[in-house]
Amino acid sequence: MQRKQHLAREISSGQILMISLGGVIGTGLFLSSGYTIHEAGPLGTILAYLLGAVIVYLVMLCLGELAVAMPETGSFHVYAQRYLGKSAGFVVAILYWLTWTIALGSEFTAAGLIMWHWFPGVPVWIWSSLLIVVIFLMNAFSVKWFAATEFWLASIKVIAIVAFIGLGSGAILGLLPYHGVRHFIGLTNFTKNGWFPNGFGGVFTTMLTVNFAFSGTELIGITAGEAQHPERSVPKAIRTTLGRLVIFFVGSMVVMSALLPYQQAGVTESPFVTIFSAIGLPWVGNLMNFVVLTAIISAANSGLYASTRMLWSLANQGVISPIFQRTTKREIPIYALLTSMVGGILALLSAVYAAGTVYLVLVSISGLAVVFVWMAIALSEIRFRAQLPKQEAHQLAFCTPGYPWLPWLAFGLCFLSCILIWFDSNQRIALEVTIPFVIICYGGYELKEWFQKRRKQHATN
């Protein structure tokens, strides 16, 4: 089949921004953000999320230059293949595809459990199956339909976070009652148990959790291949990324850290539910369950979109079977979509029947995979600019500032966050599993290329 650079360009600038926000604001912020506070302490959590926001912004600046210069569907997989080698491109695509398909399995289960909470007479598997059908249809109709649904789903999450920060700030300042009493709380929880109650090391050992929380921003690069005006929409989305990440994530963490003792944060329930309940909002449990459900649907929607485009890109580059390159009349890669959905269902089944073996390995890989992808983006930008003539570099519509120091800093910080995982015994398995997996994928593809060259040589002789 003939190679394409992109699919239908139907995603607007506003939709790109909301798709990126929808991908990054997942269930982790609503459900497991208390873990970071519990481990790193209040101030340590703020520092960890600030550092994470800086890392992801540096990576997005690198991706912005590449995506505007080469707005292709598949994005960083294509760049890695072009500037780091075919094997590196293959590894990046496989890691990213795995990240989202594994997440799909978790999201199908979580959505089913929330619906079961409301309708206990209906089995969880029926609700999970219903979500699978809904997510598939959202992606199968057209990219315009996907972008529109994701825009509104992401909007609900943004509204919930803004309301949380606003109401939480009111409680901190004594404008709203907290546990039935209206008084100035301030930031006493930040210093009550010392600046870093679990030691300064907690800032670094929670970086895998923080980086995983920020994963999804790179969707900006994938949507560039289907954006209406990538030369305008991609830089705009990237420039506003840091501000929104700081407001939504760091702002939420400041409110949580100020209102919850770090020992209790996220131990028994979502910090959002705990704080809303203490402020005295009615129906807070059902309200947050609804927000979390939309977050799950949004993350699954974005995840299926991203994994589908990765498979299509691999086929488009001639790496895997061309059947995955085939599209419908509306330019939806239907076979790649079906395969990605099957991958998500298999991840779901592994969570049910092999939680301590197969699923544990898959989750460990997906937790670290996004950081490996970010390092590949930074290296691709370095190689791209190095190969570009100086005259053409000055003509780029979007340039990574501070080249080459900024992309090297992005790579170095990502690499450092990987190394620091080794010092956390609970997260060390991510390194122990992911590094051998990457080596096997890289070596396997190199062997495949070698055998193909030998076969061609024999055929010509």
Quote the beta fraction.
under 5%
Form type: globular
Q: What is the H/E string? A: HHHHHHHHHHHHHHHHHHHH
Average pLDDT rating: 82
> What is the helix fraction of residues, given as a range?
over 70%
Do you know the CATH architecture? Answer: Up-down Bundle
Largest sheet features = none
Features:
461 residues; single chain; 74% helix; transmembrane; mainly alpha; 20 helices; Amino acid/polyamine transporter I; transport; amino-acid transport
Structure, described:
- With 461 residues, the protein is mainly α.
- It has one domain (13-454): Up-down Bundle (Amino acid/polyamine transporter I).
- It has helices at 13-24, 27-31, 33-69, 76-83, 86-118, 124-140, 143-172, 188-191, 201-205, 207-214, 219-223, 230-239, 241-259, 271-279, 284-316, 334-353, 358-387, 390-394, 405-420, 428-460.
- It is globular, with a radius of gyration of 22 Å.
- It starts with 12 loop residues before the first helix and ends with a helix.
- The model has no long low-confidence stretch (mean pLDDT 82).
Task: Provide a compact summary of the structure.
The chain is 74% helix and 0% strand. It has helices spanning 13-24, 27-31, 33-69, 76-83, 86-118, 124-140, 143-172, 188-191, 201-205, 207-214, 219-223, 230-239, 241-259, 271-279, 284-316, 334-353, 358-387, 390-394, 405-420, 428-460.
